[in-house]
Amino acid sequence: MTSEQSSKSSSRNGSNHLLKRVWYSTSVPVFAVLLALLIGAIILLVSGADPLQAYAALIKGSFGNTEALSRTLQKTTPLIFSGLAVAFAFKAGLFNIGAQGQLLFGAIVAAVLGFGIHGLPAVLHASLALLGGAFAGALFGAIPGALKTYTGAHEVITTIMLNYIAINITDYLADGPWKDMTPGNIVARTPKILDTARIPSVAGLPLGFLIALIFSVVTWWLLRKTTIGFEIRTVGLNPNAAKYAGIKVAKTIILTMVLSGLLAGIGGAIETQGVVGRYQPGFNTGLGFDGITIALLGKTNPIGVIPAALIVGAMKAGSSQMQFSAGVAKEITDVIQALILFFVAADMIVRWLLRIRAAEEEKVTLSTGWGQQ
Amino acid sequence: MNETFALEVKNITKRFPGVLANDRVDFNLRKGEIHALLGENGAGKSTLMNVIYGLYTPDDGEIFINNQKVEIHNPHDAIHAGIGMVHQHFMLVPVFTVVENIILGSEITKRTYLDLNTASKKVKQLSHDYGLVVDPDAVVEDLPVGIQQRVEIVKALFRDAKILVLDEPTAVLTPQEVEDLFVVMRNLTERGVSIVFITHKLKEVLEIADRITVMRRGKVVGTTTPSETSEAKLAEMMVGREVLLQVEKAPAIPGDVVIKVSDLVIKDERDLVVVKDVSFDIRAGEILGVAGVQGNGQTELVETLTGLRQAESGTITINGTIMPFQNPRVMIEAGIAHIPEDRMKHGLVLPYSVADNLVLCTYYRPPFARGIERNIRSVYDNSERLIEQFDIRTPSPLVSAGTLSGGNQQKVIVARELSRENHLLIANQPTRGLDVGSIEYIHKRLIEMRDSGIAVLLVSAELDEIKSLADRIIVMYQGNIVATVDADKISRSELGLLMAGSQVANIPSLN
Fold first, then answer.
1. Please, which pLDDT band fits residue B511 given cuts at 50, 70 and 90?
2. Interatomic CA distance for residues A41 and A35, integer angstroms
3. Which of A40, B43, B95, B239 is the most buried (most CB within 10 A)?
4. Residue A363: its chain B contacts at CB < 8 A?
5. Do A9 and B396 count as a contact with CB atoms less than 8 A apart?
6. Testing the interface with A: which of B349, B400, B405 to mutate, by most A Cβ within 10 A?
7. Contact A308, A86 (CB under 8 A)
8. Which range is least confidently modeled, A255-264, B128-137, B216-225, B443-452?
9. Distances from the Cα of B189 to the Cα of A97, B9, B30, B211, angstroms
10. A358 in contact with B at a CB cutoff of 8 Å?
11. Count of A–B CB contacts within 8 Å?
12. A53-72: average pLDDT
């Protein structure tokens, strides 16, 4: 293109440039959700239920009153963290499927610090447990980072395998050394954490949700406004140019995985300290995997992760109400969530359906080539 | 007129948002001719060819094959109409064999099984008929670039192409490979194939083309023949103003030694020694040219000098300090500027804004950052200043570098590298793939750097570039420095002989 022509056109379009960008980056996720709901409605219809009634109950159960809203925010909190963890790793071109495992370690370490330490004041105790969970997640995230850097093992493979390791280690700990020995308990779970380690709700607003919002902003700031974020994004977009520019690619990859694991770990810790009150196997299932849907739905933007997590969290919170008052199996929300992931990941379908032009944006590398360094 | 054209387009108009890429373009191709389409990057040559090949739908205009109007909506239609295209970046599967690549998309099958034997025979027959020697069973990634290009041509002929579009075919070739390609092109036209030859290299056009059409800013400027025109005239048609084809420079005034390279031995990925005991030094205020056909160790040498590659042994000394290997940042901070060979791979982060690309190597330093916090304002100010100073044509500092033309992308790199405090500039193929205007610009900047007292290492496969810019020349052949000569003491052809492996003893003027 000739420069004169293009500069003319850019000044003409300058005013609605921002609007366009917002439209470009939100149109696909929004329509993905709507399409998923539409197909969900068809499934409901076919199975003999009234979709309008079902969706009304779903909304009522998630936003209908203070209690419902509080439940939604609680469900949303760990999802924001796992979404952030996955989105953050995406920025360095890494596909962290291990958020689940990192989250489990965060959850169990927060629990053990929560029931194992006595005599600390509330704020200190809760912070300590949270930090412990964060540290555990970070440590567990460092493993695939180091494996990738030093051996070239692809993080998709290693994080999938590390998830199994995490599930089985935490299962063992909760049924062995850290088992709740209260007389009569036969369930694999840790003791209840002390009240001093709990992250409470204030006037129905879970503090954990507030922490999640803060971390979203901090993550955004780190990626967008700091040299560390610049290094991470450069490595993600062009590792060769990163090396050329003097960025230590290996160090950056490990750091990214550590921070990604840290975010997931905090998510697990808050779930323990704010919702479950102990570590119990099975209670955190899927939270880490939902992070993949949420990261993609949020366009891997740390701020975009918030509404994305809210949608998934609301469906989790409202599904019981839907089952109760509309007689629809709550699993339909899982189907809708899967459809959302499908349409976001295969965004070409949505673009084609809606004739949306591909945005000029920093594209997300879902996964760099196998075996490619 | 009742002449039959192999291909004729009339009134082609193609608009992109904000840009008129083709403005009522008329173009015709006679049977069996080589018609060069000449123009700067962004002049609309590739757009026109993509319209003809069905990759773009024109907003207006008509296409005729043998004077019959045709509708081309996709490459399939184009192939059906007998049009074959060889893209600048090859569309080959590296791990497939030649024959597998050639039949890809038009597989010959026998009861649902691939019939590679028949295909292989057909490929051999084609190779023989057109004088395109290529081994059907070789794996593509093992072949030199020139042969890979030949595979692309055979691929088009395999699909019965009568019209061949070659998009910048010489950009990736060595001088010898270019000669081979020209022989192939003449062979093809003798056998009735018509060729559109897209390029911006003036010498080649004059050498090979039957007719030349020049485009500028989406329009056809004119059509001429080699006998009616000259390099200078063509350059003026392309750029729209007079262009200095010859670099003007004063004699060098060399100062102290800036970089001293001693006994450097370097291995490549396959663990082969590709640079053998290389030693040289460069003084402030002189340009040392490294001549050599691509693949004789220059790439690895530059990578080692810029900290991207480990050396087996030897030392690099800059201003008296021995430098560590494999630490690009230390090299940057020691005052080395690097214009890399592959601007897409190393030089730029294409999705990043021009502004961010302009601080790619200095983003962590004041004023662009304080602690870990980036100062976006000063990054932006810096970019506005450099865009102005280096005449980078971009609608805004915030558009992504990937949207700029090749020449302007190179200017972004040049601006970034030259705006630092430097002692040594390493420029590896700095004008590859650029148009006349941009080449003139880059050459001027290199001379300016030299004259401001910077040591310059220029690696180039272009003989003319080395000859006209360098003060001293080292010739690399198979990892050795086979000659070190003053630039004005050697002729172009002697340099060519040395690059091809001739001994210094056989060059009279050097003895």
1. low
2. 10
3. B43
4. 351
5. no
6. B349
7. no
8. B128-137
9. 56, 20, 11, 13
10. no
11. 101
12. 92
Burial of A94 (0-12, 13-18, 19+ CB in 10 A): buried
pLDDT in tens, A141-190: 999 999 999 999 999 999 999 999 999 999 999 999 999 998 888 899 99
* Facing B16 at nearest CB: one of A1, A230, A238: A1
| For chain B, percent of residues with pLDDT exceeding 90 | 55
Say what the pLDDT of residue A370 is: 38
Residue type, B320: G
In chain B the domains, ranked by start, together with CATH numbers, are: 5-239 (3.40.50.300), 244-335+421-511 (3.40.50.300), 353-419 (no CATH)
Instruction: For residue A226, give the nearest of B308, B373, B408 by CB distance.
Output: B373
* Residue A204 scores a pLDDT above 70: yes
With beta carbons less than 8 A apart as the criterion, state whether B432 and B343 touch. Answer: no
Task: Give the separation between CA A219 and CA A230, rounded to whole angstroms.
Answer: 13
User: B263 with B313: CB under 8 angstroms?
Assistant: yes
- Token pair belonging to A194: 């002390």
Kindly report the three-state secondary structure assignment for every residue of B419-482.
Answer: CCCCCEEEEECCCCCCCHHHHHHHHHHHHHHHHCCCEEEEEECCHHHHHHHCCEEEEEECCEEE
Kindly report the nearest CA distance between residue B166 and chain A, in angstroms: 21
- Only one residue has tokens 């062995």, namely A176
Q: Do A237 and B350 touch (CB under 8 A)?
A: yes
CA-CA distance, B52 to B74, in Å (whole number)? 9
Cα separation values, B291 from B41, B473, B484, Å: 26, 7, 10
CA distance B474 to B378: 41
The fold adopted by the segment(s) A50-327 is ABC transporter involved in vitamin B12 uptake, BtuC (1.10.3470)
User: What pLDDT, in 10s, does the model give residues A342-351?
Assistant: 888 877 677 7
Contact residues on chain B for A245, CB-CB shorter than 8 A: 328, 332, 360-361, 363
Residue B397 and residue B358: Cα distance in Å, rounded?
9
Quote the CA–CA distance of B62 and B22 in Å, as a whole number: 13
